Fold these 2 entries.
Entry 1:
Amino acid sequence: MKQHILTTIAAAFAISSAAQEGNKCAVEYSMYKEFVNVEAYSEARESFWKVFDDCPNFSKNIYLDGVKIYREMIKIAGDDDALVNAYVDTLGIIYRQRIKNFGEEASVLCRYGMEVSKYRRSDTAKMEGYHLVGKAIAVSPNDPDIAAVASYLQTSCTLLQNGKIDHQQLFNDITPVLMTTYRLRPAKGEKYGETIDKVIDVVKRMLARNPAKSPTFDEMFERRFQLPGNIEEVSALTNTMNVFAADGNNLYAQCAERLYKKNPTAEAAASLARYNRKNKKYDAAAKYYSEAVKMEQNTVKISEYLYEGATVANNLQKYSEAVSMAKKSAAANAKNGAPLLLIAAIYMVNANNFGDDDYAHRTVYWVAADYAQKAKSADMNLTEESNTLLAKCKQQFPKKEEAFMHSVKPGDAVTVKCYDTENTTARF
């Protein structure tokens, strides 16, 4: 009985002590929180660190507020690189203690990696941040944090552009991540796929500007992979090769044929089309693109297949067909500027085939310029290419004197007969 009473008293003291400790934490927390709420971040620091050191489990908001405080300190530090770097290190302390007390290691490591890339004042900041985000992915490699994936893929391409990593390292780093995202899509659902697709679209564009020379991405895939036995793995590998535009190698052909034989979907037909296009077998490519368009339901992918099919028609010198397909592609996806740029290029190359005189030929460049302008309006990533075509078009615009002879003044609406009848505006 005596032992029971002593145990009860000890428990009561423990509860009372915990309550007092909790009350102390609440007081200290409310003190710095008031400063944070009015954005008086410098004044918040003393109380913040008391809570951080004495009450690490009190609230996750401690760590969210700490990040706010030291982001502001970084701004105030201005050009003092040493101080900025010290504050970035402090952010690391805050993020690591958050992980220790509240978990969420992958997403928190990702955030810290992004902070390092953004704020660290050193030549190695981007690489340091990149490795931190890579660690975030490694926490759960079979189901990585989606924000970490997005950051890692885009940063890898930026590092490639800046000469910090080579094509082989980029390939080694991001191929497993891409493969994983394609494996996860069926279970993750449409929203996951849409989010990843936006990132992958950026990666595709960046890689297109920096194609691997030797070894090529086609060679890298053939060295690293063999035809998988599992059809889901075949699909994941095929889609990953598509990101790198590595669609001309024998492994890609084997994957495409396996997919098409097992399940002749739009995706499988498009894969065969791409392989034949890369190997300049344009008639076969045109056939499979036509099949892909007929079977596909997703308008964004329809736009993609129509555009690629239009490039094949262009290579076959079926220019009217190419223009028609490109227009359908642009109509299917208002954000796809590539088909509009293709139309501009086709009209420029064939301008002398329209009309009976030099003035008529030159009016085609008004139309081509319209399409180049529309291309960059649809997709700002095409601004540089569009501006290049626009500059070339302007050099070929009709002269005022020529237009005057045809009763055309600046700003007049003009109808131009190309592969289609096009409406444009006179300018000189």
Note: Residues 2-37 form the longest helix (36 residues).
Entry 2:
Amino acid sequence: MSQKFTRREFSKLVIAGAAGSTLGVFGGVRPAFANQKHVVVIGGGFGGASAAKYIRKLDSSISVTLVEPATTFYTCPFSNWVMGGLKEMKDIAQTYDVLKSAYGIEVVHDEAVEIDAANHSVKLKGGGELKYDRLVVSPGIDFNYDAVEGYSEELANTVMPHAYKAGPQTELLTKQIQEMKDGDNVIICPPGNPFRCPPGPYERTSLIAHYLKENKPNSKVIVLDSKEKFSKQGLFTKGWGRLYGDVIDWRAASKGGKVLSVDAETMTVNTSAGPVKGGVINVIPPQRAGKIAFAAGLTNETGWCPVNPITFESTIHPGIHVIGDACIAGAMPKSGFAASSQGKVTAASIVRLLQGKVPAPPSLVNTCYSLVGPGYGISVAAVYKLTSDGIVKIKDSGGLTPMDADDDQLSEEATYARGWYNNIAQDIWG
């Protein structure tokens, strides 16, 4: 980069320019042509919906089919705000009406269960089959339930929700916290790296602590972490000290945080330092790429999908692009904004490939806002480029909220967070 931005200028730039962060601002859709090329997109989240929309914005002669089981998509960003009593589920609900009506995207509410890479086809759970010229796979994450002894998918849906896919488990965890007896504790068990939204468990810790302080003053949040450190740790712990005192008890793996097993009958987490009992237990299991990525053989030994960083095309199956949380994207974290940024780069690459052109090297962006309290926001942001080492962060781009930020700055960050969500949701689904 030839120009350096202050962190505050960078934050304002990201808020103002979410729609054009990687591709610039595009004009009207061009008229359709005969003999359309067809792109199928699996997954209607931040990555998939972005890719589908921006392919059509760049070249409406390409037909796009978006495959997404849910008619309403609940975003993981801001789902922690629901648990803290600051938002409702309807506030994080997105639909596909505008993608269909304004952009001519065919939206199929079904589940992709098989990809035939050789024949360029996708089989659906409902029995249908879709042919494609290019395929975008944005399946999000799946969970390794077996990694936590005593835990299971059934327990996640009924007793110990992970709530790391927003929806019914978000509602369940919120209800459990609201109905918990004052004096009982909420236990949060974050996974090891890499996982979706690295600051997510700690924003969740913050906002649950806010709710408890307001409604259950004798209760605490105990974080049993499998790691020694976490994203934005200094900023979070400073905020916890200012806002919550001893309401939050974070324990590193070496300080008794390592989880050995869970017992749903006694609502106990067994750790290296002994058992810890909770009124509510939020286990977030280790993660890997979504199921369809495994079924299609798009993953390697890490459980994630290797890609060409210029186009996000799979290095295992040509013609298939993998974006979002499921892919291995160098220095980029697994976040909603990163997925959207990757979706736009992939859209541009696919359009150029289908036009017989060479894709341009990408410029990618990520920003992640976290709320420590209702008027206390923090963030991390960066710009990325492609080098011989893959996708790397550009030096001096973005950065963290300053540790010495004053109350006005922290309040501004909370306002930016709300603006970020509104803008990115409008950009993708609106």
Note: The radius of gyration is 21 Å.
